[in-house]
Amino acid sequence: LLQILGRLSKNQAWYSYLLERKNNSEYKLALSILNKNNNDKVIVDIGCGIGQVGQAYGKINTLNYDYLAIDICLLYLVIAQIYHFDRRIQYVCANVEYGLPLENGRVQHVLFLDSFPYVFSKQRLLENIRTKLRTKGKLSIIHTYADSGINRLYGYGIDPKTLKKLLYKYKYKNVRYLKYEKDDMQNIVYLTEKQTDLNNYSCSSTI
Known about the structure:
By secondary structure, the chain is α/β, with parallel strands linked by helices. It has helices spanning 2-8, 12-20, 25-36, 52-60, 74-83, 122-132, 160-169, and strands at residues 42-46, 66-71, 89-93, 107-113, 133-142, 176-179, 188-193. It has a 7-stranded mixed sheet, sandwiched between helices. Helix 1 runs antiparallel to helix 2 and helix 3 crosses helix 4.
């Protein structure tokens, strides 16, 4: 289905990315982070696309948990529901520029995989996420910078110093970041948490 949509779309590169997503290092890192925190009972995946991460995590973790997969594109969520069905996953169509459609203090882990650069209202969203996280909750941001021409239509990348300042401004703690595999700006990973337990990584935060 994605191959057909890719042929019909003007943005063929995006559909190629979705098809190859399981092979990229950011995807594997996201699964590793989720798996190391497999006791989290409420997980929010922002910009979930067609639901590949949620499905793969469900195969690793057989425990009961709630996985809220959020995307602004209804078509992606329909594809996810058909091809990546799991009773623990709830697919939610929402624009997170206005905040998360969740009650305060409920969430244990918020994940951005290749989606944070496409947010315009980063300050507002980080402040909102802070209210949704439980004590000892975690925020993981994988891939924070994208600066191609088309990306500027949908959001903007953010450099390490600026992001760190924002996280401290909204009372996240122990903020760290790491570079992985490639040594360019597009491959900087941020792991920001309220409770630091990812000691293998050089970037995280606490509240």
